[in-house]
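User: Quick sanity check before I run a bigger batch. Here is a single chain. Can you write out its predicted 3D structure?
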Amino acid sequence: MAAVLEEIAAGRLAAEARVVISDNPEAPALALAAGRGLAAVVIERKDFPGRHEFEEALVRALKERETDLVVLAGFMRLVGPTLLSAFPGRIINIHPSLLPSFPGLEAQRQALEHGVRIAGCTVHYVNEVMDGGRIIAQAAVPVEPDDTVESLSARILAQEHRLLSRAIAALPGLVQNPGAPQRKD
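Assistant: Done. Predicted structure follows.
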């Protein structure tokens, strides 16, 4: 999220961030958003009787701010039908593997355990299947012989920071901030 906000602030991504929502009141993203003058909203899953009600609260918060695109960056929950139907084809996620390989948690560990030589990250549309939506963009990262989960994760994260903003910029049909300069690379 921070990398996307940096790209917007630098004028390299013609978009407007409207709200940052977290289900974790301690998430550093909330303080970062508030420090940039963005709405920083906490919606905790535990405050709702079920996933449907939780997602209704998410939808309300997003629609109140006229959100065009929902970007999941560090949101570690499966998205259900309430949120998916409110933003059809307008929810994307960044995942630290070259999907369809290694969906779910600990993708970097899975890559190392399987002995792959190339890992990476994927931006994809979100659907009802965990990390199963149509792929938008990918970036490859070589796996070094001495890699640990931490070292591979750090190199993948650097690519995630670049890839997510580029993928957002390339999405068709989004209402973008007309006052921001267009990306030149």
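The mean pLDDT is 91.

User: Great, the batch can go ahead then.
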